[in-house]
């Protein structure tokens, strides 16, 4: 039905152009107009046909038989996401090596997301269903992509312009409806635009099934040196009229569910849905420039404690990567069990007291563990007020008190020998 409506809209828009051709000069113009209409209708059909579907990519995953060492079955020729090998995943750490992205108190988004990408790639490499490529490191782009940017710059720019013109024509004809309300995004620099459109074009040409863009968030405010108001994750996906939207949204929802198990959804208005559709982000295929599923994950705000505390950051990086991995496995109906959903615990809490102001991986693990047991955040609070951050405060104290009270322990709000012993007994197989 939806495709039929789109075809109707396309022909309606093109028919109006035929009237102009006829008015301009008779049969010759009408013949030319009819040819133009056919070309435009055919182009629009390609524009709207789903380039990848949920059932298609899930079936591809289930049908992978060959081990990674068997390159004879590697994807070579396929008709638009009919796979004969591994699920290809491109992980793109946001922004550029040594440039771009947000920063706060000496901590740089562009570096943290490289670490998350590396951890995620290692997890995916354990599953022979995946073939994984990471787009860049902290200093350089992947040589394959750098060569593509260097040698195909003119083609990339032509691709960008042609897709933009197509989008403008479909918006003008009503074939595609503009997004009424969307989150404001910063404009990309010319070099970043070239690279982002280049990644879309290269990934489509090389039949990548999933592209994951990894980011940390921030927002414009008067005093950028101070901790901001908003927190939490969000995942941007192509707006539902785009050809790669269905699979992108489904994958994003699976990953969001795993992230939401230990982290807040963004509190920024319009991002608070968790999974947010967008027509304008280049990374996820603005102007229908991406064939495969494409997601842009904002794991949290750069000023949040788990990104700012050096001793906590490595475990937070590992945890975000693990949640993303679990979400992908859930989407492919190959869930990892048993699992706590966090790599931060089990943990040796012998040196952790959880006094106010104490921070470190032990506190992060304690908060995550107490959450799993149902005590953190404490009653009446949310992850937004009481994040799994690795920093102890009133939220942690109240959660420990609730746990101690429920287990008949002395209510101190801090970790003592008996509370540690009780927690250790909880750490059985999930």
Automatic annotation (TrEMBL):
Keywords, comma-separated and alphabetical: Hydrolase
UniProt-recorded Gene Ontology molecular function terms: N-acetylmuramoyl-L-alanine amidase activity
InterPro entries, A to Z: MurNAc-LAA_cat, N-acetylmuramoyl_amidase_3, Peptidoglycan-bd-like, PGBD-like_sf, PGBDSf
Domain MurNAc-LAA: 89-308
Compositional bias annotation for Basic and acidic residues: 418-430
Biological process annotations from GO: peptidoglycan catabolic process
Stretches the record annotates as Disordered: 411-430
One GO cellular component term: outer membrane-bounded periplasmic space
Domain Peptidoglycan binding-like, chain residue ranges per copy: 359-423
Keyword Hydrolase carried by entry: yes
Coiled-coil residue spans: none
Record has Hydrolase as a keyword: yes
PANTHER family with a match to the protein in the record: N-ACETYLMURAMOYL-L-ALANINE AMIDASE, N-ACETYLMURAMOYL-L-ALANINE AMIDASE AMIC
Protein's UniProt name: MurNAc-LAA domain-containing protein
Provenance organism: Candidatus Kaiserbacteria bacterium RIFCSPHIGHO2_02_FULL_54_22
């Amino acid at each position: 039905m939806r495709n039929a409506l789109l075809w109707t809209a396309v022909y309606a828009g093109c028919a109006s152009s035929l009237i102009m051709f006829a008015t301009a000069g008779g049969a010759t113009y009408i013949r030319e107009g009819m040819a133009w209409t056919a070309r435009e209708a055919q182009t629009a059909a390609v524009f709207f046909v789903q380039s990848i579907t949920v059932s298609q990519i899930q079936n591809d995953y289930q049908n992978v038989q060959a081990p990674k060492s068997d390159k004879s079955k590697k994807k070579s020729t396929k008709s638009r996401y009919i796979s004969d090998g591994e699920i290809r995943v491109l992980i793109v750490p946001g922004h550029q090596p040594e440039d771009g992205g947000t920063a706060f108190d000496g901590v740089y988004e562009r570096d943290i997301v490289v670490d998350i990408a590396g951890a995620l790639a290692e997890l995916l490499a354990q599953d022979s269903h995946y073939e994984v490529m990471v787009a860049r490191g902290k200093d350089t782009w992947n040589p394959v992509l750098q060569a593509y940017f260097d040698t195909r710059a003119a083609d990339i720019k032509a691709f960008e312009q042609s897709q933009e013109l197509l989008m403008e024509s479909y918006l003008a004809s009503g074939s595609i409806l503009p997004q009424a309300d969307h989150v404001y995004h910063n404009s990309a620099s010319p070099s970043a635009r070239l690279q982002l459109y280049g990644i879309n074009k290269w990934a489509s040409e090389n039949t990548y099934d999933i592209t994951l863009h990894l980011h940390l968030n921030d927002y414009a405010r008067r005093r950028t040196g101070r901790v901001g108001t908003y927190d939490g994750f969000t995942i941007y996906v192509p707006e539902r009229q785009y050809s790669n939207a269905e699979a992108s949204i489904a994958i994003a929802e699976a990953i969001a569910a795993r992230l939401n198990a230990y982290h807040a959804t963004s509190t920024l208005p319009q991002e608070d849905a968790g999974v947010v559709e967008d027509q304008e982000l280049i990374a996820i295929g603005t102007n229908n420039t991406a064939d495969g599923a494409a997601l842009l994950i904002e794991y949290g705000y750069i000023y949040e404690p788990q990104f700012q505390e050096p001793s906590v950051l490595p475990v937070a990086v590992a945890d975000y990567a693990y949640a993303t991995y679990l979400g992908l496995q859930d989407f492919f109906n190959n869930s990892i069990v048993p699992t706590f959903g966090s790599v931060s615990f089990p943990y040796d809490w012998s040196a952790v007291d959880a006094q106010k102001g104490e921070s470190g991986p032990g506190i992060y693990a304690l908060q995550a563990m107490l959450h799993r047991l149902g005590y953190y955040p404490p009653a009446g609070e949310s992850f937004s007020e009481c994040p799994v951050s690795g920093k102890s405060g009133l939220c942690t104290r109240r959660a420990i008190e609730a746990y101690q009270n429920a287990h008949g322990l002395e209510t101190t709000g801090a970790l003592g020998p008996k509370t540690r012993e009780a927690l250790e007994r909880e750490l059985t197989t999930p």
